[in-house]
Amino acid sequence: MSHEEPGTAAPPARRRRLVDLAPLKESPAFARLWIGGAVAGIGAQMTVVAVGLQIYEITSSTFAVGLVGGIALLPMIVAGLWGGVLADVFDRRRLLIASSLVAWSSTLALVALAAWDVARHADGGHAPVWPFYVVTTLNAVASTISSATRGSVVGRILAPHLVSRATALNGIAFGATLTLGPALAGVMASSVGLAWTFAIDAILFTAGFLGVWTLPALPRLGRQVEAGWGMLREGAGFLRRSPNIRMSFIVDVVAMTFGRPYVLFPALGATVVGGGSLTVGALTAAGAVGTILVSLFSGPVAHVHRHGVAIARAITTFGAFAVMFGVVVLVMEGVDHTAAPGWEGIFWPAMILLAVAMAGLGASDEVSAIFRQTMIIQASPDEMRGRLQGIFVVVVTGGPRVGDMYAGILATAVGLWCPPLLGGLAIIGLIAVLTRVRRARTGETFRQYDDRHPVP
Length: 456
Fold this sequence. Notes:
Elements: H1 22-26, H2 28-59, H3 62-89, H4 92-122, H5 130-157, H6 163-191, H7 194-213, H8 229-240, H9 243-258, H10 265-272, H11 277-296, H12 307-332, H13 348-378, H14 382-413, H15 418-434
Helix pairs in contact: 2-3, 2-5, 2-6, 2-7, 3-5, 3-14, 4-5, 4-7, 5-14, 6-7, 6-11, 6-13, 9-12, 9-13, 9-14, 9-15, 10-11, 11-13, 12-13, 12-15
């Protein structure tokens, strides 16, 4: 296991443009976790897309698709907070194994539910939608605990100076899952059906499980404590005293609440752009292309020290691309096009512009994510990282679910163009204000954060 004590000087970093593979070379444990997570993530993203398609097929309602996130939100918040506590108390490897098995079981349940819907559809009906909400909520809870624990592991199996580079590598894995997973989901859903799409996720899960299983033991450092409200209060107290980490959460909530158009994709594919499930997969994959490109050319991140400025600029750019997405959809309302399933039913000029907007959203979000995650790991002690990662996971997974509800409600009440257009403008304005607010005690702003002197 490669590990360097906090405070140890990092070796001089060579100027480079492409992603730095040093974390994979110096920590075999991180390499196995990274590879396994990338493979399993492809299946997980297939399921995310397939669930939306399944519920839209049953209900023909964008609002019903958005409810997947809304119903799971409160359980996910609880799971993130308590999962972080558990990660700071128990052996993190064992916790990852347990939560991964629960997530796997819920995926197998989705396979059974999709097969049930196929059987009901043959008789002219559909399976009820509520079991899908129950199972996806269980999956979200288990995945939230796994993600919180996985994030707190990185600081234990890597030297501090490799953290930002490891975060960039995680962006490549995440981008690959978002590229391949949705594209495969779209193709498989239209060819062999949703039940088989869920089944592939269950199969690919084994790679991620092997990466977790081969981790070294990761017990709590320092004195032993018990999980309870005291641990939550201690974490909340640390966050109150950590304005930079707190602001990194706030600005991401703003971006994820107002700038995610994913819940609109089934309706765009069915009624506006055309293409059906193929459009859903293609647009989701386009966002991942932006993520991958940023990660592939992430060599300079080791030389960026003003992380607050980098985050603020990245999220502002994110808002601008959300506005672009909304404008394209708004213009499409005046275009004479009859949407139809399949490649021939797609209005390609709109598809290309929407894909460019999605690539921009993915790229700018990845820049923000690299520096936000690095800030959390570098500026907090190990015994606090589980709880902070729990909050981080609540933000990065709960925020999009609030965004799904926001987009679903506004799209139903006004139009599909409204959520991204209005939300993008809100992001640009809020980020400009929030990141320039001066603290009463120090007079500093979030934009002044410098990773050479990490202050939480």
